[in-house]
Amino acid sequence: MGLELDPLRRLRHLCPLPTRVELAGATQDEAFALARAIDVFAPDTSCVAAGLLIDALAARGASAALHTGQANSDARLSAARVTLAIDAETQSGGESYRIFVEPETVLVSGADAAGLFYGTQTLIQLVHAATDGALRSVRIEDAPSFAHRGVLLDISRDRVPTMKTLFALVDRFARWKFNELQLYMEHTFAYGEHADVWRDAGALTSDEVRALDDYCAARHIELVPNQQAFGHMHHWLVHERYRDLAECPDGVEHPFSSAREPFSLCPTDPRSLEFVGGLFDELLPCFRSERVNVGCDETFDLGQGRSADACAENGVGRVYLDYVVRLAETLRARGKRMQFWADIVLNHPELVGEIPRDAIPMLWGYEADHPFERETRQLQASGLDYYVCPGTSSWQSIAGRFSNMVRNVEAAALHGRTHGAIGLLVTDWGDRGHLQPLTASFAGFLAAADLAWNADSPHERRTPDALAELVSIHALDEDLDAEGGGGAGRAAIRLAQVSEAIGARVANASPLSIALTKIDAPFPPPEIVGLTGVGTKRARPCIAAAREDVEHETMRCSDRHIVLDELRFEADLLDLAQTIAFRRLRQSPRDADAPLPAKVRAELSERLAPLVLEHRRLWLLRSRPGGLERSARWLERVAEVLADA
Predict the structure, then answer these.
(1) How does residue 75 score in pLDDT terms, banded at 50, 70 and 90?
(2) For the chain, how big is the Rg over CA atoms in Å?
(3) 308 burial class (0-12, 13-18, 19+ CB within 10 angstroms)?
(4) I need a surface site. Which of 317, 326, 343, 460 has the fewest CB within 10 A?
């Protein structure tokens, strides 16, 4: 399709959407032709971006030559020219950039090295989109809404990505203008003196973290260390060596295990800070970052054990804050600035004024109706720097929760930008076995990237059809101009819509995921509101349409075959969960907790068996073996219930 016929379509497909785009030329003659000799001039510091641009130009038929530094004498006088330059005086702040495309020249200028990198990424997107062989004459002026734009990957709920997977994700995140990455750790760093904790978890070594830090830095991404240091320490405290550091050494019930376990460190025991200080002494030198996320959320057992007397005398909030203040001092002594989850502090507004001024609360909330407006106002009033942290809504869902994700990310971006948040960090968790494949998270990553860079990006970019196209283009490299092209992106979004099609509501999960992983509980579980047989049947056409879409995929990404198998796995597992829920709902009220008929259980078991094997196979294509057995148990438990009922 020629430029004259559809001048804006490709510009709408840029992601993130630039803040200002102005078309200049009106005809093909006023475009920058690609299939010719092109000289690319770039500073030495932009070698990664310039190399990617050379590859993109070559893929469009250009004979492109790269010239770095100031020595331009070897340039071909007859060649078209692309110039990459740093020009702080003409820009609108850090990381901003401009692009001018004219018939014979293209100029990308950045306020700094990061701005030049992001401008080059946008130019690369324009080149990839130029299937008609030319770049429309255009002027782009662009700058980010949030200074910090990040992704948090949960690598402690069983799934630890391979280094190949992490490097590939960093490449994607850099293209989408994220500038921060956190790997959420409870027990998945290979601490030298603590192998009994991480030995079977697929932990990252110090050499691997340093290599990843280098890779991120070359792409203007800050790898921020993330290590829980208060709650969520159960993987440590279950071992006798560490149990006496626990708030409740005999254990408590908590949402992250079916067994009673000690969960939080005891904040009144001085050895707790000594212990985490030792961890940070080993972890932090692997990172360039001057910030560190210490978690400190969901301290469910605080005041129920060894700190009970202190909490009774001074209040739970005071005991919590005293520990966090001392933790901030510990990190400050090591030259680091502390990030921590804001939920506990928001529950004790009377203490906000005592939070260290250099600490950064991380405001998380994952539902569509999370009160971001009220909470961002509260944090803005505190005077503290803070982030908003929505989620991809992929976890406990199998394939995602589309509408919840869109509304959650939009609310976080809107109220965060309105009330002074310095960053947006989109989180991707792995509760209950991290059963969702990576493909289920792409839509959430892209929606967050778009809004973190341009908080004014219109909602129309996050309708199902629009976001399917963005996933197709930017995550899966699909050819949308092919007949029926973009099938994989459409399938990913359709599968993420299954949750809402059912019409039931459950917090932080999808109804079918809960129906599957809680198969041994009374049905329907009380946390699912409004689940009906009619509702579960509405999942079927969504799944069927997604399967049809998969057959029309036009992917050219290097992991194409993995994505295809992940989409088919999602569809099959959702289909099985739908059948389980529907069959159980059909039982009479007096038989609601009775086993399903033997014939039905046999049919379900036959369908489940290959899915357990497929989950194991797909896991190893992107993730390390550590954690696989724990994850597979969530599906194997279903098989056992069906067999033993």
Answers:
(1) low
(2) 26
(3) middle
(4) 460
